[in-house]
Each structure stands twice: as C-alpha cells, then as structure tokens.
Design goal:
mainly alpha; 7 helices; Sig_transdc_His_kin_Hpt_dom
Length: 119
C-alpha cells in the first residue's frame, strides 16, 4: 500500500498493519472490505434506532459495527462501539445515546479517509 494511502487511513484511526495481518497481508482484500464498510447500512440503522427508541435494533446494529470495526482495526470506533454496547446491555440507554455524537464524528472521519484513498 502506498505510504500516502496508509497515512490517511492511520490518521483516521485505522491500524493498517494490524488489519493487513487479519487479511493475510492482502492489500486487495483489505481494500475490498474497507470499500464494503462504506456501503454497510448499520450506522444509519443505529442512528434511526437510537432516535426512535428501538433498543433491539440499536443493540444489533451497534454490536455488528463493533465487530466490523474490530476486524478492520478501526481502533477508536471499535472502542466507542464497545462502550456503547456495554451501556446498552446494562440498560443505560441514555449513556448509549450520548455516545452517538462522538461515534458520528469518528465514523465520518473513517469514511472520509477511505474515500480519500480512492480504492
């Protein structure tokens, strides 16, 4: 992977080397899954579920995103989704909803970085 692309992704909170390890060193495979991340509907589902109070849909979407972000080595997003899932599972829905402001910022940062790399 070109250094410029790697730097853009790293600055957005993606540990490229760690992600590449998970993809057996295949940059092509990593690029494919980063591109798929942009099309994943779960963040929009999460936003809608939080706003409407649909706790089941919110937990499912947040948990799914936690797993995806973990596999793609999106460290900051993974940690924030982990926090949110913990809040949800313990019934602290207000705290889970409060996580959305920071999650939205981190999510947008990662999406922009992926778009900037022009995979």
């Amino acid at each position: 992977m070109k250094d410029e692309r790697k730097n853009i992704l790293e600055e957005a909170g993606i540990s490229v080397e760690e992600a590449l390890e998970r993809f057996m060193g295949s940059e092509t495979l990593l690029e494919k899954f980063l591109t798929k991340f942009l099309a994943d509907p779960n963040f929009e589902i999460l936003q809608t579920a939080i706003k409407s109070g649909d706790q089941e849909a919110a937990l499912k979407a947040s948990h799914t995103l936690k797993g995806v972000c973990g596999n793609l080595a999106m460290k900051q997003l993974y940690e924030k989704f982990s926090d949110q899932v913990s809040y949800m599972r313990s019934g602290n829905w207000d705290e889970a909803a409060e996580e959305m402001a920071e999650l939205e910022g981190l999510y947008e940062k990662v999406c922009e970085a992926i778009k900037m790399t022009n995979f």
